[in-house]
Amino acid sequence: MARKLRQKLGEILVEWGLADASQVEQAVQKAKASGQRLGEALVEAGVVRERDVVRALATQLGIEFVDLEDEAIRDSIDMSLIPADMARKHLVVPLGRDGSRLKLAVADPMDLELMDLLRFRLNTEVTTAIAVPDAIRDYLDAGSGGGAGGGAAASMFKTDSLVTDSV
Fold first, then answer.
1. pTM (two decimals)
2. Which spans in the chain are helix H?
């Protein structure tokens, strides 16, 4: 059976009318030259918002996008399901249980080491959704009375494969 090719991030943004092909190609070249991720280059250039990139990543990866600004989503968060230090360090917010699985909103669902760490430390299988990193930080800061963000894990997208996206 043939494997379906995943649509590229730039293609999704162009299809949605949020960027044009030349803007994406310029951002690809800038990302390659500077070591940035494509999403970061597009946001920095003012072509799209971080939220648009995260939504496009959710589409690209076939996972759920979670809007942490939505009151219903915020009400479903159960911070008692994971240690607060883990949530902050790895930019993870627990959205509840789905049967025997823990549903987590994460900033970087492509970080396989993090997914393994979460499964091991939480001793459960996890289902991931993606959320805007700044929205995760804002939620955690509001719930904990402020404080610094999550360090290296707080970069917008840690997956290097997203840098080489082309139109």
1. 0.79
2. 9-15, 21-34, 38-44, 50-61, 71-76, 84-90, 112-122, 133-144
